[in-house]
Specification:
Layout lengths: L7 H10 L4 E2 L14 E5 H8 L9 H15 L3 E5 L5 E5 L2 E5 L13 H13 L4 H15 L10 H5 L15
Parallel strand pairs: 1-2, 2-3
Antiparallel strand pairs: 3-4, 4-5
Length: about 170
């Protein structure tokens, strides 16, 4: 939350030493994230980072335009842009995947970005491809916003709606 826990020098060192770095930066820190495996922003944060009017997250073309500018001018990384009631858009390796909002109507959209980043990071770190990581992240966001307040989602709840992933082993518990 832009409190300075990781300064730009430490972030640069982390990026140099790590194989998979997934970041959800505030717009003012975005320029230090180039080279991360994944950068996750909401649509408003993307607009702010670009110094543009937020426009409407409803349009896939707006998300594509912002992602192109971000990737070209600020951060050379794969991106997920969360778009509130319109779902999310993932931009990875030259590919684009627009995913509509998953699930029921939102009870409270507070904090949906953190589960998107966390689930995408765990999926990628576990060897999932980008499309699977984006789809799991989208489901996590859809589950979290169906609960009041800042909420969490467990693996069982996350994997239950994912019929194609039924053959995955359950996560190991410490």
């Amino acid at each position: 939350y832009a409190k300075g826990a990781i300064d730009p020098d430490l972030l640069r060192r982390i990026l140099e030493l790590s194989r998979c770095v997934c970041i959800g930066p505030k717009p003012r820190l975005l320029g230090h994230c180039s080279g991360a495996s994944l950068v996750c922003l909401n649509f408003q944060e993307a607009a702010t980072a670009l110094g543009r009017d937020s426009g409407s997250a409803a349009y896939d073309t707006a998300a594509e335009f912002y992602a192109e500018l971000l990737q070209r001018d600020i951060v050379n990384s794969n991106l997920i842009l969360t778009r509130g009631q319109y779902g999310l858009s993932a931009f990875f390796g030259g590919g684009i995947k627009h995913l509509p909002k998953w699930g029921e109507a939102a009870v409270d959209p507070t904090g949906a970005g953190a589960p998107v980043l966390a689930v995408a990071a765990v999926a990628l770190g576990s060897g999932a491809d980008w499309q699977t990581a984006a789809e799991l992240a989208n489901i996590a966001a859809g589950l979290v916003v169906q609960k009041p307040g800042t909420a969490t989602v467990g693996w069982e709840a996350l994997l239950q709606p994912v019929g194609a992933l039924d053959n995955l082993p359950p996560p190991e518990r410490p």
